[in-house]
Amino acid sequence: MQPVDSHLFLIVGAALFSIGLAVVLLKRHAIVVLMGIELMLNAVNINLVAFSQYDPDRLQGQMLALFVMVVAAAESAVALAIVLQVYRHFRTAQLDELNELKQ
Amino acid sequence: MPVHTPLPVSLLTTLLLSLPFVGFLALAMASRRVSAWLAILTTSFGFVVAFVLALNLPDQPLTIQTAWADLSGTLFSISFRLDSIAALMLILVHFVALLVQIYSVAYLHDEPRLRRYFAYLQLFVGAMLGIVLAGNLLVMYAFWELVGLASYLLIGFYAERPSASKAAKKAFLMNRVGDAGFLIGIFLTYYNFRTLDFSVLDTAVVGGALPTALGLCLFMGCMGKSAQFPLLTWLPDAMEGPTPVSALLHAATMVAAGIFLLARIHPLLSPDALVVIALIGTITTVWGGYSALFQTDIKKVLAFSTVSQLGLMVAAMGTNNVSGAMFHLLTHAFFKAGLFLSAGAVIHAVHTQDMRHMGGLRQTLPITFWGYTFCAAALAGVPFLSGFLSKEAILSGAFDWASHQPGGLASLIPIALLLSSGLTMLYMARQWRLIFFGSYRNKHIPLDQTHEPNWLMRGPVVLLAILSLGFWFSINPFSVHGSWFFRLIPTPAEGHFGWLAPASVALVAVGGWAGFRMNAPRTDTIAVRLSLEYGFLDSLFQYLVINPTQKLANLLSRTDRRLVDGTVNNLGITLVVLAYIARAIDRLVIDGVVNGAAWIASFFGQMTRSVQNGRVQSYIMVTVVGLVLVLWWLLY
Predict the structure, then answer these.
(1) Which CATH number is A59's domain given?
(2) Nearest Cβ partner of A25 from B613, B614, B617?
(3) HEC string for B100-119
(4) Which InterPro entries does UniProt cross-reference here (chain A) (predicted)?
(5) How many CA atoms lie within 13 A of B31 on its CB side?
(6) Residue B66 forms beta bridges with which residues?
(7) Is B428 exposed, middle or buried (0-12, 13-18, 19+ CB in 10 A)?
(8) By residue range, what is the domain housing residue A15?
(9) How far is the alpha carbon of B598 from chain A, nearest alpha carbon, in Å?
(10) Class of residue B168 by CB neighbours under 10 A (exposed 0-12, middle 13-18, buried 19+)
(11) Is residue B374 within 8 Å of residue B469, measured between CB atoms?
């Protein structure tokens, strides 16, 4: 199998990471922000998988990507639960209106 | 008293001196009703003590001394001295003061401030006793000033009258002029002799050269108190006081102080000073006599006669005749007090002091008339009366002195003195006629309503008139030689001038005749105005002293206002301007720094606060930017 040129992976990963970061920073709704985080995690995963081709014996990159997915799933679960609680508590999930940290 | 009984003389002297001052304090607290009798009791007790003292006088002058101030090794002491002159004066002061106070009880019976009046009198008597008993010049000066104060209080007793308070001020100020000289004289004495004690001074000066200035400065004190030319103008104005006060002031206390001072300091006077003193005394006696000539106020005539007689005493002092002067002081005290007290009785009867509104009073006031006649005759130097004797003593002393002086000019002094005694007769005869003879000229009170005062007032007058008789002092009516007085106060050998007594008698007769015939002169001639305004001395003082002083005062006040006040004001304005500048600096710089610091702090606070806005996304943004920066810094 002809290996794909690794810099294409990197461009896709960087683009994905940048989009995720933009979503995290700019979007107002907590759920959407969580989505942005997922994008960023997956951009990292692409990088990990892409670099894993230079380690064909042990495939540490792919292993770590799997590990990240698991952790991301757990994180999403926890984060969604928190968002749910936040919504219950403040009757909103708009991050602009949640400035309790200022106190 | 042949056997000397051990009388506590010093104790008695101290008691005598403290009596009037105790009386003064007691009177300040006594009620009005008893005040007069308390005062009289005090003075009569003092009189008795003075008499006892005089009878037990030690042979040597007695000195009581106590330390007062020790100034860097120089001891100033309070000392009192009792000798024959002092004893004589003690009796005289007490006697006249006693009579005056008895008289005052009746004379001032309507006066609401009687208590104060008697308290002042006691103060006056006490101050005079202090002068008489003073043993050194410093103590004498202290009591001297006290006499000045007491005279001020008594002359200005009717303080509600502006003229009285003015007269009191005038007397006080003119006395200050003399006292300033007296004080300088005391300093000079101390500078020259290192002591102020009379007993030491008497012996210290023998042989040494005497500075004339010293004697003249001391004489300045006498000039003020005894109203010598040119400081005589306060005395006529002092007539504003109650009449008994005038009697006391003119007879025994205030004006006698100057003569007594001269008697005390006589050894300190250089021959030149004595000539000046004799000259001033002569000028005063003529000046006073002439001023008395045309006065219309009954008391002013007597005041100027006092000036004249004091001039006579001072001239006697100047002609080395201490005993003669003291003798005249004694005789004068009796008849002058008598004259003032009778004048008081006349004023009491007709309620005016203007002699033009009197006349013919000899029928309604017979006792006053006879008392007045005897006293006036004694004053004028009529034979068989005391004044004749003392004037003869003074005049013979003066002629004797003049005969020993080089140059013929010196004999002008005794001749002027002789003529002035004729002048005395002239004005006394005029006054006598104006009051007691002729027709009654007062329109306000009819003649039949004028009446003699009660015996409290008549008694002293009669007593003083009796004491004006000559035989109390000398058996020989035409000569005073061999009198008890000159055994008491020894006199240097004097030439006897046989022609003097007839000459004085002739002068008295001429003067009396002329004075009795004298018509009321027109008041606009220069000669009359010269007399009425006593030689224009007051106007002279006004031009020479008062006006320049006032101009100087005005100048100084203007300088004060412009220069001193201007400086102060400018300083104030400068300070205010400086304060404004300081305030501006304060606000702009100091407050600026503080406010700026606060502003910067708040600015940074705002900035940091804006970072801590509580928004998750901005935190993340910062984190990302920070991370990028860290990466950028690490990689490049």
Answers:
(1) 1.10.287.3510
(2) B617
(3) HHHHHHHHCCCCCCHHHHHH
(4) NADH_UbQ_OxRdtase_chain4L/K, NUOK/Mnh_C1-like
(5) 2
(6) B78
(7) buried
(8) 6-102
(9) 23
(10) buried
(11) yes
Token pair belonging to B241: 């006081």
The length of chain A is 103
Test B617 with A98 for CB contact under 8 angstroms.
no
Q: Report d(CA B603, CA B598) in Å as an integer.
A: 8
Residue in the structure block whose two tokens are 């035409």: B478
Q: Is the CB of A95 less than 8 angstroms away from the CB of B613?
A: no
Q: Is residue A42 part of a domain?
A: yes
Cα B460 to Cα B479: distance, rounded to the nearest angstrom: 28
Contacts of B619 in chain A (CB under 8 A): 101
Contact A33/B at CB under 8 A:
yes
| B184 close to B226: Cβ distance less than 8 angstroms | no
B212: which 2 tokens?
């004339």
Classify residue A81: in a domain, yes or no.
yes
pTM to 2 decimal places? 0.72
Interatomic CA distance for residues B377 and B375, integer angstroms: 5
* 8-state DSSP, A94: B
Spatial neighbors of A85 by CB under 8 A, at least 6 apart, are none
The Cα B137–Cα B144 span in angstroms is 10
pLDDT in tens, B174-188: 888 888 888 988 888
Alpha carbon A96 to its chain centroid, in Å, reads 21
Indicate the residue of B612, B617, B624 with minimum beta-carbon distance to A95: B617
Mutation to test the A interface, candidates B617, B621, B627, most A Cβ within 10 Å: B617
Distance CA B417, CA B411 (A): 10
Packed helices B366-380 and B500-517: angle between N→C axes, nearest 10 degrees:
130
**What is the residue-averaged pLDDT of chain B?**
82
Residue A1 belongs to a domain: no
Of A21, A26, A96, the CB nearest to B624: A21
C-alpha to C-alpha distances, B311 to B85, B129, B289, B325, B413, nearest whole angstrom: 20, 23, 10, 10, 12
Question: Would you say residue A16 lies in a domain?
Answer: yes
Give the side-chain half-sphere CA count within 13 A for B441: 15
The predicted structure's pLDDT at residue A56: 82
Cα B329 to Cα B312: distance, rounded to the nearest angstrom: 10
For chain A, state the CA radius of gyration: 17
Give the model confidence (pLDDT) of A22-50 as tens digits: 999 888 888 999 999 999 999 999 999 88
Our CA dihedral for A85, A89, A91, A97, rounded to 10 degrees, sits at -100
CA distance B105 to B111: 10
Which position has the token pair 């009703």? B33
- Between residues 73 and 102 of chain A, which touch chain B (CB distance below 8 Å)? 95-96, 98-102
Structure-token pair, residue B202:
């008497």
Distance of residue B618 Cα from the nearest chain A Cα, in angstroms:
7
Q: How far apart are CA B141 and CA A97, in angstroms?
A: 105
Q: What is the DSSP letter of B356?
A: G
CA-to-CA dists, residue A36 to A25, A42, A88, B508, B627, angstroms: 9, 10, 22, 151, 18
Confidence of residue B49 (pLDDT cuts 50, 70, 90): confident
Q: Residue B225 in contact with residue B261, Cβ under 8 Å?
A: yes
Q: Tell me how far apart the alpha carbons of residues B264 and B198 are, in angstroms, rounded to a whole number.
A: 7
For residues A89 and B296, what is the distance between their CA atoms, to the nearest angstrom?
124
Q: How big is chain B by its Cα radius of gyration, in Å? A: 37
Cα B326 from Cα B367, distance rounded (Å): 29
Cα torsion angle, B239, B241, B245, B249, sign: negative
Strand partners, B197: B136
Collect all residues with Cβ–Cβ distance below 8 Å to B27 and sequence separation of at least 6.
Answer: B35, B38, B39, B115, B118, B119, B122
Residues A47-64 have pLDDT tens digits of 998 888 888 888 888 899
